[in-house]
Q: What sequence folds into this?
């Protein structure tokens, strides 16, 4: 599947966001009702055939709907895809020079093709997971310190 971004502005964007929010509630409810199933069957309204999907696909749909409901652009990138430094920087929402600094520091795995760097989407997502975890831990530490000092 190729990476693509969809802009969510204007009246159509608002209608799409509202439809996505409604669909998200229904998908979350469906997943909660079928939490033990690894494969889920859904019947589309007005159709006689059931649609059978892997649970992971339905969970991914819920994630996409959550972003759409918030009016954010959505990109789908296979985990094995190799990205340019600019594409990787865009996905992390950082500047290209900052990303290159991360690559040189060994924070994100990459390979060189000729003179160009290529970053696997999987490596980029792993970096983001580690970075998010470190941020959560720092926030927890600050909260604990504030509680110790009686500030909250």
A:
């Amino acid at each position: 599947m190729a990476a693509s971004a969809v802009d969510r502005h204007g009246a159509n964007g608002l209608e799409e966001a509202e439809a996505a929010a409604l669909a998200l509630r229904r998908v979350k409810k469906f997943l909660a009702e079928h939490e033990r199933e690894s494969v889920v069957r859904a019947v589309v309204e007005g159709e006689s055939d059931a649609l059978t999907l892997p649970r992971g696909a339905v969970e991914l749909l819920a994630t996409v709907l959550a972003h759409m409901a918030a009016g954010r652009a959505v990109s789908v990138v296979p985990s094995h895809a190799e990205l340019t430094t600019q594409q990787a920087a865009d996905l992390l929402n950082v500047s290209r020079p900052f990303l290159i600094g991360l690559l040189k520091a060994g924070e994100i795995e990459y390979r060189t093709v000729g003179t160009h760097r290529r970053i696997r989407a999987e490596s980029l997502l792993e970096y983001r997971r580690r970075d998010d975890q470190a941020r959560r831990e720092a926030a927890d530490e600050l909260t604990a310190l504030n509680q110790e000092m009686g500030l909250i």
Residues 82-148 form one domain. Strands lie at 39-43, 50-54, 82-83, 111-113, 116-120.
